[in-house]
Structure formats: C-alpha cells, structure tokens
Amino acid sequence: MGMTITEKIIAAHAGKERVFPGELVQVTVDVMLANDITAPLSIKELEKRGITTIPYPERIVLVADHNTPARDIPSAENVKLMREFAKKHGIPHFFEGGAVGIEHVLLPELGLVVPGDLVIGADSHTCTYGALGAFATGMGSTDLAASWVLGETWLRVPESLKFVLSGERRPFVTGKDLILFIIGEIGVDGARYCAMEFAGPVVSSLSMDERFTMTNMAIEAGAKNGIIAPDEKTLAYVRETGTSRPVRVFTSDPDAEWKNVFEIDVTSIEPQVAFPHLPSNTRSVYGIPKIEIDQVVIGSCTNGRIEDLRMAAAVLRGRKVHPKVRLLIFPGSPKVLRQAEEEGLIRVFLEAGGVIAPPSCGPCLGGHLGVLASFERCAATTNRNFIGRMGHETSEVYLVNPYVAASSAVAGYITAPDKL
Amino acid sequence: MIRGKAVVFGDNVDTDVIIPARYLTSTDPKELARHCMEGLDPQFPERVTPGATILVAGKNFGCGSSREHAPLAIKGCGVVAVIAASFARIFFRNAINIGLPILESEEAASRIREGDMVSIDLATGEIRNETTGEVFQAQAFPPFLQEIIAAGGLMNLVEKRVKANS
Ligand code: SF4
User: Fold this and answer.
1) Angle of helix A232-241 relative to helix A208-216, nearest 10 degrees?
2) Which of A207, A209, A410 is nearest to A317 (CA)?
3) Of A14, A133, B3, B39, which has the most beta carbons under 10 Å away?
4) Most distant CA pair in chain A: distance in Å?
5) pLDDT tens, residue order, chain B (166 aa)
6) Residues A253-264: b if buried by 16+ CB within 10 A, e if exposed
7) How far apart are CA A343 and CA A44, in angstroms?
8) Ligand 1 pocket: which of A104, A328, A368, A378 to mutate (most atoms within 8 A of CB)
9) Minimal Cα distance from B153: which residue of A?
10) Per-residue confidence (pLDDT) for residue B143, from 0 to 100
11) Contact between A26 and A276 (Cβ < 8 Å)
12) What pLDDT, on the 0 to 100 scale, is given for residue B45?
C-alpha cells in the first residue's frame, strides 16, 4: 500500500519509513509562524516561565499583519513585544512596516516555504502553503511556543480526501469558485481532521495564485491541511523567489489509501456566492435575488495576490464604483502592491473610485480599516462570513471571487461581470 | 470529578462568535471573558455560574480561527468543561494545551438540555446527566494527550523538559 503526499511529508519529518492515518507522531518543524494576534500569547507564555532557549531562530517567522498599522495602543504594544522578542533571540524573519504583507501571501513569495516543508502556524490559514506541496497546518499559540523551544511538535496523521477536478471552466470561474463549490458540497466540517488533496487536469491548469486560493480555504471545510503535488509551475514559482532552501518533491502513490475520492466535473460550476453566515452556504451568482451592498473588499490571504487584482482591474477599467458603495482594495504584500502599480492597476482602482489600503489583513477579521456598521452588507473576496466577522453582529458578508466583487462594486448589488 | 449546570448551544459555533476579533488585542482571560459568545448571546457571561457551568454544543464546535483566545475566554468565564458532538481540530488542541477539559459525545450533546445538572469523570470519560439520570460515554483521550492534561497543559510539560536538559 502506497502513501499520500501528506503521509510522505509527515513520515519524512517523523524519521519513519511510513506513517498511518490516525497515528500520533512527533515531527520536526521547518517553519514556525505566528502573527501579531497569536505571537504575543506565545511570547508571554515563555517569558512567564523564564524559558529563554530558542534553538532555531531562523525557522521562526513573525508577521505583524493583523492589527497593523497599529490600530490602537494595545496593538502597538503587541507588535513591540514581537519586535523585542525577535531582537533578543536573533529571529531574522520579523516583518513590520514597509516589509509587511499578509503572512500567507508573504511567506511563499519570499521563498520562506518550499515544497516538502512541514510548516506550523498560529493562524488557521497556514494551510495555504499546501499549494507548494508542503504540509502546512494551523495550531494555537501554546503549540507554537512549545515548537519554538523544541523545534518539533506532535501531530495526528490525517486521513486523506482526494478531489479530482476535470472538465472545462466557464468564464469568470476561478480557484475561489472551485473551492467554494467543494465546501458547499461537503460542508464546513466535511473534511474535519482530514487532508484535502486537489488534483486533476483543472488543478494543473490553475496558476499558482489560484492554487493558493484553493488550499487557503481547506480550513473552511474543517481540514487539517490542503495540498497540491508540485509540478513545473510550482518549481518555476519557487525558483523565481531565489530561495536557497532545499526543495523536496513528494507526490501521492497511485496505490495510496484515500478515505474518499471526489470526482468533480467543473463544467457546470458557475461563479459562487457564499451567503451569510457559513462559507458552505454557496449559490450560483446567476441564481440569486438582488442583494444590495454597502461595501466591497478585495484582498486577504485568499484573494490578495497579483492575479486577483488583475481580475478586479479587468472589470473596473473604465467603470465607476456605484456611489453608495465603498470599494476597499488590500494588496496582499508590498510586492503585489508594487507590481499592481507598475501594471497600472492601482490607477484603474483609483479612477474607479476605490480606496487603496496598506498590505495587511484589513477588515477581513473585523479589527479595523473598514469594519461594518449594523445591518450593512459586504461582498468580499475573503474566506469567512461568520456572524460579526467583519464588524457589527447584524452585518453580513458574502464571499465571492475578485471578478464578482468588482462587478458588484459597480452595480451596487451582487452580480457577475457579464451582467453589468 | 467536574460538575456544573448545562448551558446549551447549537452546531458550528465559530471562534468569531466565541470571541470577536476586535477584542483580541488582550490576552487576559478575565477581559476576554466579558465578551465571550457576544455575537450569539450578549448575556452569555451572566448565564455562567463561575466554577459550576458546563458548556454543551453540537458539531464542529470552535471552527474558524486558530485564536487561543477562544478557549481562554470560555475558561475565563468560569466554564469548567465543554461537551460537544464534535470539535474543530485547532480548538481541540488549544483547549487541551491551556487546560480546558473538553469531551466529545454526540449522544450527550443531543440529549443534555439547558439547565440540566451534569457531572463528568475525566479519567474514564463518563458523562452523567444528574437531572435525568442518563449516562454517556465520551471517547477517552490517547495516553499522549492524557499526559498533557495531567501535567496541566502543554507548557508545563515543555518547561519540565527544558529544565531537565539544562
Ligand atoms: S487575511 Fe483574513 S483570514 Fe487571512 S490571515 Fe488575515 S485575517 Fe486571517
């Protein structure tokens, strides 16, 4: 019996020939990530106990992307705590100010994560890095604190689910729609504790940016990780980062054991809208009633990459944002922002009447930079539409792809570009 | 033995309603507790009798973010244990790591009603509804996790390891 890619990466980090689903293993960790919400808890936990041994500072990554530029004094204190901790322990990968971007956009772009890595992060969307053929999963602050001291962590080897995507994609159907469709099919706990592996000709045809969007939202189905086997596109992407980290390519064996295999023909999938208050409440954009909106957010670790901004700009070029809608655009990283500027996308957004916000999480989690008032509605390219996620508990978030977000900003209600 | 009155919630209680992100600049359990479950029931902290309340919920409890502030807020309210039909995996780890007892039992989650007096034996995983006399069996933790719980959380274990090595 063969192994899945997930099992192979875990086995390689557990020093074992093979591992089996359900097994608890100790693994070494290549990258250990935390942000300005989760790192302070980890740091305080270590300092409270007087633990000062941080043996692998180069494996730690600290990104101040959530409540930054500092939203208030406590947020500023949290970043200060991270900065001082990084300095004290010689942690080279600490990002703030002009270096900061959304962690899950930033790390792949900088070559800090490479194929074959085992990554843990005190952020649930750490699963994003699976698009590189790495095993990456979210944990809590205490888990991270422990791993910073030990260089390892414990894991339960997940069962693997395989999603084989084939067929022809319709216009305006992106990686976002494919993953929303899958979550709509299996539900928000449909992959609980499992690995989701995406494969098939449609996945091969996706760009890296769209693959990141898919693995990013594996957590929204309850998965431990999302993963895509590396191919030429992956390796080209990694080469371009100029990273010196060693790449290890793993793929699932033909006789690997799957808990379930889903064969999905994408031909009939239309652009998706996930209605409040669950990412699984998905519908086709063509079959929904008129939903008027107050705000549109384009960005986040799901859809804040250059291709996402290109999609949005393609719709907004020569058009104006509806007068009662606020359009907020959050490029995912300084590199994405620079590239968007060079390609003239920023100008398109400004001329349409959009607001360009600093590379950061922004209102995605309802902290600052564009939170919603009571009963306001937002179409967003983000990943969660839970009650109160983006502001007041009576506000509503509709999850969409960048094309639909842009066309909705123009129309004033949720719609697709071909209906403008 | 843990004992408390049940406070009951439904399926898919996510971390954004357990503790909204706007309060995450604090790491103090008492401060977090003031806003616990705010999105679902702003009166929640008043429904809790500190030290004598057990939270009971449906499937996928704690889904969403990795914020450890969620179990901390629940613990900070004075909830002594959580019983759910199932837990989201990051919440499951976080709760164990910070020493909030949690038990998974579909039957208990569906049969226990608001206000029932419930007792739990963590060593055996037995859940008893004292109000109705029903008894449920939750899955026992694997030995490795029992070790973390017995140590009073993951960091106690790590601290022991570090100090033994130095
Ligand atoms: S963009 Fe949103 S989902 Fe992504 S890391 Fe930031 S807050 Fe979390």
Assistant:
1) 100
2) A410
3) A133
4) 61
5) 899 999 999 999 999 999 999 999 999 999 999 999 998 998 998 899 999 999 999 999 999 999 999 999 999 999 999 999 999 999 999 999 998 999 999 999 999 999 999 999 988 899 999 999 999 999 777 788 878 877 878 999 999 888 887 6
6) eeebeeeeebeb
7) 43
8) A104
9) A142
10) 81
11) no
12) 87
> Tokens at residue A137, please?
């999963």
- As a three-state string, the secondary structure of B42-81 is CCHHHHCCCCCEEEEECCCECECCCCCHHHHHHHHHCEEE
Nearest CA among A142, A141, A22, A388 for reference residue B155: A142
Q: Is the C-beta atom of A361 inside 6 A of ligand 1?
A: yes
Q: Give dist(CA A179, CA A383) in Å, integer.
A: 10
Question: What separation in Å is there between the alpha carbon of A180 and the centre of ligand 1?
Answer: 17
Among candidate residues B66, B24, B75, B85, the one with its CA nearest the CA of residue B48: B75
Contact A34, A141 (CB under 8 A): yes
* pLDDT at position A153: 96
Count Cβ–Cβ pairs < 8 Å, chain A vs chain B. 134
pTM above 0.90, yes or no: yes
Cβ distance of B65 and A140 shorter than 8 Å: no
Nearest CA of chain A to the CA of B54: how many Å?
23
Closest CA to A378 of A405, A339, A346: A405
Structure-block tokens of residue A382: 């983000």
For ligand 1, atom 2, which residue shows the shortest CA distance?
A364
Question: Distances from the Cα of B130 to the Cαs of A56, B52, B120, B122, B123, in angstroms?
Answer: 51, 14, 10, 16, 18
